[in-house]
Structure formats: C-alpha cells, structure tokens
Design brief:
single chain; alpha/beta; 2 domains; four-stranded antiparallel beta sheet; 12 helices; 11 strands; globular; disordered C terminus
C-alpha cells in the first residue's frame, strides 16, 4: 500500500493538478458557512476543526436539481435527449462519517431490480479522498463514534489524507481508482517511517475513542413495536416541519419529480424533497395518507433506524450531528434514540407496521 507525504505547498500543488483535470468538491466557506462545494480556488479550501462541514458532500453525487431527460411535445410526445454524461469528479477531504453516508446512498440507488443509472454513472466517475481528524474533543452533537465510526476510519475511500502535528499530511492510496487519480499529480515524495508511525498512533487513538454505544440492532427491534408509541407526539409537538434536518442530512434522499416546460419542449427534473413536508405524500386526488406532523416525525426516525436498516442492513444515520446542530426547536436525535432504547420491548406480535406511513 502506497503512502505519500505532503506539506502545505505540495498539498496545494496536488489540488491544483486535480482541478485542472476534474471537478473538485471540497470544504469551503460560503457566506461564513462551511459547505462541501466546487473548489474554484485553492485559497477557498477551509477544513472545519472537526472535519464536518455544515453542508454535506451529498450534492456532489445526488445534485439538488438534475434533469432526467428532455422531451418535445407534439402529436406523439418524444424524448429528445438524455442529460449529458457524468464528468469525472473528486470529493476531497471527506470526513469518515460522510464517506459512510455515501455508502447509504449507494445502497439505495443501486438496489435491484431498478438501480438508478444516473446516480450510478456519477458514482463510477467519483473518486473519494477521505480526511482523518485527530482531535480528541468531539462536539457533543457529533456522535459518529457512538455509531462505531472512527474519525480516522479509511473504509470505502479511494485515497485517505491524515494531517500530522507538523502541518504535513500523509496520503494513503487505497484503490486503483485512487492510484489513477494520484498519477495526475506526477511524482510525490513517499512517507517516511516517522510519519507512518504517527499515522498508526493517531489511528489507534481515534479507534480507542469509538464507543459503539448506539446499537442499531437494538433500535431496530425496539422500533418494530413502536409505531403507535406516544413518544412520536412529544417529538412532533416541538417540530415545525422546516425540513432543515433532512436537507443537511448526508443520507436523506427523498426527491420530487417535476416537468418544466417552455412551449413545445421541456425537461423532467428531479429535485431534493423531504418526508417532513406536508405535500410530500399528497396524492393527485388531494388525499394525504400522512396528514400530521406526528406521522412525519415518526417517519424520519423509523426510516433511518427501522425500515432502512431492515431492508438494506445499514443504518441510515452516521452520527454527523448536523440535524441536532441546526434544529430551531432543539429536537435532539440523541435524546430520541435514548428514549427508544429505554422503551418497553415490542409485543409478542412481529410488530411490523401496516400503516401507509411505512411507505
């Protein structure tokens, strides 16, 4: 396994070479907010202290708005053309919890029997460069370590960047795709024994901080019998349905599809949406099977820790804590999960929900 050693200048040179060949997404500041966005200038790069930007890298693989196809109206409506093919791109400096969030999207959009080819085409040309964070103090609203994710977890990355105390970095090559990307930068110095030893120490220390307090198997079992729990009303009473939690969540993937038409031509467009909005489940007939915030608040938690986990074997939450940090009414997901863990066990029945809220 290859390791390269970079100082600030060579890191900037690496990014410059990558930007010349591909679109690079990285943590930047936009109006004072840390966001994962297209890196247009090296000077815009701004790694947050805890490695987690307010806005996740989700938009790079699942754009906020994307055209599914173009069409022309006439005697026989016809598809004119598909959208342009996906261009190679780099996600640079992705925190391990956001890397695992991308794996959730991969599972959902890659599911048979109808995998999403637009998403998969974009993922095939996306190289993920993870970023380790060595700090020992994690903000209270971040709980990725309780979910079993280390801040130095290199899983599912193509390349992994570890910052060292002397303002140097070790870049670890993990896949052939990562190796091909690195070749765009030309020759880079190999990491020395001291740097590699420091990486090992940082990785061990980070792993020791992982508590795995949140057992998703337990949550899934508890939730299977909590569809009618009174707990949802307490959560919904505070919730204002703003959707901020969903739009900042790195794994939420609800979308709406609209036709945008001008004259005889138009496009079918997919846009981000959220199950926290009243109109999300509203039928063309006017009927809405999920009429209350009670049901919508329940759906969010059940989807992440019961339905999603049951169907895909992966929790639809990675502990980034963005939902906690942004909620205007302080609805704390950790408090909710604690309440679920302490709830009475499910009844003798299988507890499977029969309500349309599961859909």
């Amino acid at each position: 396994m290859e390791h390269k050693q970079l100082d600030k200048a060579s890191l900037a040179a690496l990014l410059t070479s990558l930007m010349a060949e591909q679109t690079v997404f990285a943590p930047v500041l936009r109006d004072g907010v840390s966001t994962f966005d297209v890196l247009a200038d090296i000077g815009d790069l701004a790694f947050p202290a805890d490695g987690i930007p307010r806005v996740a890298p989700k938009q790079a693989v699942m754009p906020r708005t994307e055209v599914l196809f173009y069409y022309r109206l006439g005697k026989n409506t016809e598809k004119m053309a598909p959208p342009p093919p996906a261009e190679p791109q780099v996600l640079f400096g992705v925190h391990p919890c956001d890397v695992q969030a991308i794996k959730v999207l991969d599972a959902v959009f890659g599911a048979e029997p109808h995998p999403d080819e637009l998403y998969l085409a974009r993922r095939r040309v996306t190289t993920v460069v993870g970023l380790g964070v060595s700090q020992e103090s994690v903000p209270q609203h971040r709980f990725f370590e309780k979910m079993g994710i280390s801040s130095m977890d290199a899983r599912d990355c193509d390349l992994f960047l570890t910052p060292l105390a002397d303002e140097t970095y070790v870049l670890e090559v993990l896949t052939e795709q990562g190796q091909q990307l690195l070749e765009l930068a030309g020759e880079l110095p190999c990491a020395d024994a001291v740097a590699l030893a420091n990486v090992g120490k940082l990785r061990k220390a980070a792993e020791e901080r992982v508590t795995r307090e949140i057992d998703v198997d337990v949550l899934q079992e508890k939730l299977s019998g909590m569809f009618e729990s009174e707990m949802w009303a307490g959560i919904a009473d505070k919730c204002v349905g703003c959707g901020a939690c969903a739009y900042l969540c790195p794994t939420c993937h609800c979308f709406d599809i609209q036709d945008e038409r001008r004259g005889d031509t138009g496009s079918r467009v997919r846009n981000w949406d959220t199950c926290q909005f009243e109109e999300f489940t509203k039928h063309a007939s006017g009927h809405n099977p999920r009429t209350s915030q009670h049901g919508r608040a329940r759906q969010r938690i059940m989807h992440k820790f019961e339905y999603g986990y049951r169907n895909f074997g992966i929790p639809f939450c990675t502990g980034c804590g963005r939902c906690i940090g942004v909620c205007p009414v302080n609805n704390n997901l950790l408090t909710m999960l604690d309440g679920i863990r302490k709830s009475d066990p499910p009844s003798e029945s299988d507890g499977s929900p029969t309500s349309p809220d599961e859909l």
